[in-house]
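Case study 2.
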Amino acid sequence: MSAHISNVRPKPDEVLADIADYVTKYRIKSKDAYETARYCLMDTLGCGLEALEYPACTKLLGPIVPGTVVPNGAKVPGTPFQLDPVQAAFNIGAMIRWLDFNDTWLAAEWGHPSDNLGGILATADWISRNQGQALKMKDVLTAMIKAHEIQGVLALENSFNRVGLDHVVLVKVASTAVVSQLLGLKYDQVVNAISQAWVDGQSLRTYRHAPNTGSRKSWAAGDATSRAVRLALISKTGEMGYPSVLTAKGWGFYDVLFKGKAFRFQRKFGSYVMEHVLFKISFPAEFHAQTAVECAMSLFQQMQSAGKTAEDIKKIRIRTHEAAIRIIDKKGPLANPADRDHCLQYMVAVPLLFGRLTAADYEDAVASDRRIDQLRAKITCVEDKRFTRDYHDPKKRSIANALTVEFKDGTKLKEVVCEYPIGHKRRRAEGMPVLVEKFKTNLARRFPPKARETILDVCMDPARLETMPVNQFVDLFVI
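Prediction:
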């Protein structure tokens, strides 16, 4: 006989209350966090602008009903679209994530915290066009810091991928929390909205793994951040929430989807994640491969100096960390760009052959070169236990790879090791100037010189950026 379950409505789960307390009450004081958020804003929007060059992305953009224009709606950077905030969040989120070139957070769970900008920017812009007093860009930066923190701290000790769930569940939760605050929801409504995000349907990782790897992984975060805006708007009407959505016996998230385990937390919410977030600066590659690509680029230069080419290679050994082997160690045919940019061997073979790795290198025109697959077949990946330990060490959070190339004539090049990619916290001084150049390149894809100069001047002036009304900032990006 089953035990009686009380029908007394409980207090909100502690996790719901902690997130709600953080977004409504915590004051961000870290100058480092705001400085990093400013660079993150530039980089994230730049990634979206680059994605607009790909028809596979742009075919998903615009209003749900073609031709629809929303008066005073949120505008989508780099496009002529003006949409309701839910659809605008999807558009911006899909653009941001399309090429796998925006920031990354690696822990027990992986993810891309800047995915949340879709919901944040769309909501802030919509509010600013419909209220007497516009939000300022500092409000956007603050929301970015807090969304990064919620997603990243939840990811530190809790692996959603090990139960088959995609990390975009954390985008939905983080976006819901910060968007609710931007919309001015009361505290109880914020709690209700966060509970709605957890009770909502969650995405499987099916589209990220063989044999089903596909382009949904490029718009899944757009879907999540737009769903967050929808849930926040629903909760603003006074719609009830579900206080024990995580802990309810038999029916809660923990029992149904997390093998009965409660979330674990390594630290309280602050500004740690934004301060330590990883930027993809040089290569549009899944982040566990970033250092491997840096190594391959170095080896390409050494091979050129030695008069060697990829055709002279007998075998390649990659020492790497466990997460890389689990996610991107991939053999056999690769069906599409989404398959290729999650294959460690592909991401190493291309720079060894051509001395580059760009978004275009994942397309069929380049992938049809038989030499890529021939070189892939010569690559072996092995786990280095120290690399795995350092990957999880909160004081290091390295993403190490090491490559050794052996030639057919029996000679070898000295192993090249890279433990921290250029986008890592430990390489900020080296990386940020390169990030700005990446942003300039992406601005040039869509805007004439005068418009590019205006945007860059605003973004490089922290005081001016923070005080600018959100709608005026977004208008700078309108086509």
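Strands lie at 74-75, 82-83, 105-106, 110-111, 313-320, 379-383, 401-407, 416-418.
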